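Quick start: load a record and inspect it. Here is Putative two-component response regulator:
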Amino acid sequence: MARIAVIDDDAGFRASLAEALDDFGHDVAEFASADLALTALATDPAALVFLDLRMPGMDGIAALEALKSRDRALPVVVLTAYATGENTIAAMRLGAFDHLTKPVGRADLEALRDRVLTGTATTSAPADSVAPGEIIGTSPAIREVQKRIGLAASGQATVLILGETGVGKELVARAIHRFSDRASRPFAAVNCAAIPADLLESELFGHERGAFTGAIGARRGRFREAEGGTILLDEIGDMAPATQAKILRVLEEREVVPLGGAPVAIDVRMIAATHRDLAERVEEGRFRADLYYRLAVLPIVVPPLRERVADIEAIARHLLARIRPASPPTLSKAALDSLSAWPWHGNVRELRNVLERAASLAPGRVIDAADLALAPSPRQTTSLPPPRRLAETVADAEIVAIRAALIRARGNRTEAARELGISRAALYDRLNRYGLTTLSENPTETVGGSDESSVV
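Running the structure step on this input writes:
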């Protein structure tokens, strides 16, 4: 039995939550305000705290800061009926164990209780302030991304952002930088796929005068330009092997070597992003395994727009306000229905293009379904992928997840099963079903003998 504190000014919700926790066999202390809770918990601490975000007097963010200043290891679950990207990121960055939207289901509550009280809680360092967020949406999929951003912003670990083209991977990287303690320092973004391989090294690491034909002057390079801040290596999955080796050296040695020059120490946080399946590329020998391990310290998967349909209206209104800030157009119900039904293979980038066109061509201030021009032409229809059975789609997703887990676990099936949240027997069954036994029996070797236990 554990002592659990519930801090919420809503008497009905507070009593309901307390009753459920009491049914689970815990000692529950209820508080109608943060001030009362802080006074009581100073002498009679709790093992877990449920904290409402919006309360009169001291709000949840201020209370979270106060609780964490006393005990950084205390698991605090923030509750709100009005989840936003800003308050989710802020809470996670300050060290909240989780950020939940009311109401909370009994099964979810029990699962959360088990995670916290079995010692799996993780905390992060408190911060002085946060800036407004721009990660739009409140769907469960995007809220997981917002939580990850908050956790990533509180530390210095290397981050790997994964997702389809157009989902907003650079926006996620910028949010991590903006909410981190490096926010006042530079942010540099480099598209590794857009720069020829023979020029990318000079772009990243710089060069000395006379280092090669045409080098009439010295160049610092993007890493040194981002000193003290953050660098995003976008589309790193398309990087040439020779450059991959040099990026690995930067991560391990914390220094860059300009072409024709001597090593220079740097203090830059690295974030990588790609739409490629890096685990698959490692298996194929197209991406260094040791670099993959070093990049994927904290992975963030940004879901495609079709998996967060509930966010489309909010994103569309946000984009229209930026496209035409003086007098943003509104969307008719028919237009919203069309946007929600569209598959969005180009994700948010495609949505923005459609809205820009509609805002330019719509005769009035209301955009209707016809203004969106989303009906596919016969040529587009024939180019769409053929329909697939749900089981095939699920199998593809399982294969990708199992491959990644096995690579991270160096072929250790027990560890891979634990990461995937399934039993070892279930993993064996899937390995045989999908023909993945070769991968599991022959784990990818670390290239170059890097020390995987070293700290990034």
